[in-house]
Design goal:
Layout: E1 9-13, H1 18-23, H2 25-34, E2 39-44, H3 49-53, E3 60-63, H4 72-81, E4 89-92, H5 97-105, E5 110-113, H6 134-139, H7 143-146, H8 164-170, E6 175-179, H9 191-203, E7 207-210, H10 215-226, E8 233-234, H11 241-249, E9 253-257, H12 260-267, E10 272-276, H13 281-284, E11 293-297, H14 306-325
Parallel strand pairs: 1-2, 1-4, 2-3, 4-5, 6-7, 6-9, 7-8, 9-10, 10-11
Helix pairs in contact: 8-11, 9-14
């Protein structure tokens, strides 16, 4: 705990995707640890608003319209309407030059980011090269103010929703959420492997629930069905952030590639088997000391198979059941 107990306002700028926004909660948790009376405002884009809003420790969300703040007038209007002038510190998580400029112009006492930009950062020393994992890179942004940071789990606390969709998923036999696509093709599961994984899940008594947002998962589902795989529940583009969180909370667990849903499962403390086809588990995978997770990391010598995934998932289910009973 920091010795200065007075209320301070902190602003976090992160207009990236779902996963990055959620992992940033480790910074939020560190701020609350060292500055318990702090108010934390989270600047994000509209698409990730609810993923920031319901994070533990976040006091409020401010939407940054990327198109508008790309113009001088947009920046001026954003600063003019900014509700928390002269915050104690602003953290710019991805060294966005416009966000660094805005941080200075709203009067932040401290402006901290991964890199230095002339005039825009204040004098705090921070070097992201000290860390490899995204959670440490983000969490350690507090170090210029505290000289250390703690390895703390991310926490997401959505309101409970009981509608036809969420109640329908609850009634399924052992639902398992599948999230196996992303914008990065090298990270994605193949249709053939997903088809085989769905068969294995069904053989083990689970009900696969396929989720995603946008054209990539939509096309993936079409290809699955064209390949004769129809024995799953398709909720692509059917959920809000909060609905999806409720569905995951009421599932047996998740099977994910390297994408935002992996981090959502972590933040909800739901078991997840993580499949890293691009071999980036050391910098993107879950900390298994903090979360119920199993990680498969593909290498050139050893490819991940659907049998590997179902084995790891079943073992995770057994461990999780034993811990729950204990």
């Amino acid at each position: 705990m920091h010795e200065d107990m007075e209320e301070k306002v902190f602003v976090i700028f992160n207009t990236e995707g779902i996963g990055d926004v959620l992992v940033t909660n480790t910074l939020v948790q560190n701020i609350k640890l060292y500055f318990p009376s702090s108010r934390i405002m989270f600047v994000c884009n509209k698409e990730t608003e609810d993923f920031a809003k319901y994070q533990a420790g976040v006091s409020g969300v401010i939407i940054a319209d990327k198109e508008k703040i790309n113009t001088p007038k947009g920046i001026f209007d954003f600063i003019k309407n900014f509700p928390n002038k002269k915050p104690f510190a602003s953290f710019v998580t991805h060294s966005n030059e416009k966000q660094l400029l805005i941080s200075r112009l709203i009067g932040s006492k401290h402006v901290i980011s991964h890199h230095k930009f002339f005039l825009w950062n204040t004098d705090e020393k921070y070097d992201m090269r000290s860390y490899n994992h995204i959670k440490d890179i983000l969490g350690s942004l507090i170090e210029p103010l505290t000289n250390e940071h703690k390895n703390l789990p991310v926490k997401y606390i959505p309101p409970e929703i009981n509608n036809a969709l969420t109640e329908g998923i609850k009634k399924l036999e052992k639902p398992v959420v599948l999230s196996v696509t992303s914008r990065h093709a090298q990270n994605n599961m193949t249709v053939d492997d997903c088809k085989e994984l769905i068969v294995l899940l069904k053989m083990n008594g689970y009900t696969p629930v396929f989720t995603g947002k946008g054209n990539i998962p939509k096309q993936f589902v079409i290809q699955l069905k064209q390949a004769g795989c129809i024995d799953f529940i398709d909720i692509v583009d059917c959920t809000s952030a909060v609905e999806l969180a409720n569905i995951i909370k009421n599932s047996q667990g998740c099977i994910c590639i390297d994408n935002g849903i992996l981090h959502l499962a972590n933040a909800l403390d739901i078991p997840v088997t993580e499949v890293f086809y691009s071999g980036l588990a050391s910098s993107r995978g879950s900390d298994t000391n903090l979360y119920p997770a199993r990680i498969l990391n593909q290498s050139d010598e050893e490819k991940i198979t659907p049998q590997d995934i179902i084995r790891e998932f079943n073992e995770l289910m057994c461990v999780n059941a034993e811990q729950f009973q204990a």
